[in-house]
Structures are given as structure tokens and as C-alpha cells.
Amino acid sequence: MPFSREQKEELLESYREGIAASSHAFLIDALGITVPQITELRDRIRASGGTYVVVKNRIALRAIEGAALDGLRDQFVGPTAIAYGDDPVTIAKVLTDFAKVVPKFEFKGGLVDGQPVSAQQVSEIASMPSREELLAKLLFLLQSPITSFVRTLAAIPRDFVLVIDQIRQKKETTSA
Length: 176
Description:
The radius of gyration is 28 Å and the shape is rod-shaped. The protein is 56% helix and 15% strand. The protein has six helices and five strands. The chain folds into two domains: 124 residues, Alpha-Beta Plaits; 48 residues. Strands 2-3-1-4-5 form a five-stranded antiparallel sheet.
């Protein structure tokens, strides 16, 4: 069913607001994936804070002109889907997990922080720790010296009290 001019303009605008504005995106070959599989993948990506869109190539190419995704123009051939969001590692993990289950699922390429990545690099990105994991490790590293310092400061009065108590016990045993 052909789109009317108004529908195409609305689609172009939604692509510009979503896909072209994103600095993290992964292009996927949507050929051979069934509708229930796409629905499941869309739900997984949505749960991870991303968006999954099957695009019309001609309209998508017009939308990405001058945007970061413009470097991947040659990848917009055949049925193309784009997964994008704020955290590229989380989205890459969802996509690679899905690719293990669905053998026809193939990456065309991607964009991470505005830089193009190949289809092979997507699995490398998925193996990286997520933003939350990195923040937790950073917090642990920042807290570790402070915690050690506080323990050292707390040990001085505690040890002083223990020494005084041992002196008291010794005096009590010698006087008795």
C-alpha cells in the first residue's frame, strides 16, 4: 500500500526526531525475521530504554542527511531496521542475545557516539560493561580510600581503649 505525501512527510519528521537525532544506533537486516520475533525484540529493546524501527530506506536516507548516520548510507539496502537509544551497550547486549536465538538476524553496522562501527564490532560492544556497572565500579573505587581512612581513624581510639582496659585488668590481677 503506497503512502500519501502527508504520511511520507510525517514519517520523515519522525525519523528526523528519532533516528537522525540519535548518536547511538544499530542497523539490522530485517529480512527473514517473523512478526512475532520482531515484536519480541521490540519489547526487549523498549524495556532497555531504546527504540526499534523498521524504516523505509528512501525516507530514512532523506532524514539522515547531514546527521551522524549519514556515514552509513550504503547500509540502507533491502529491509532495514534501526535500534537506537541512550545506552549503546545495553542495546547491543539485547541485540546480540536476540541474534543467538534467531539465526537469520544480521547486523549491517552501527553508530556509537557518532562514530561508525562494523557489524563485527557490535558483539564487542555488547561484551563491555554497561553504564550502570561502570558507575558502580567507579563509586567503589572512590569509596575505598575513604572507607580505609575512616577505619584507620576509628582504630586509634578503639586501640587506645583496649590498651587502657588491659592495663586496668593487669593492675587488678596484680593487686588481688
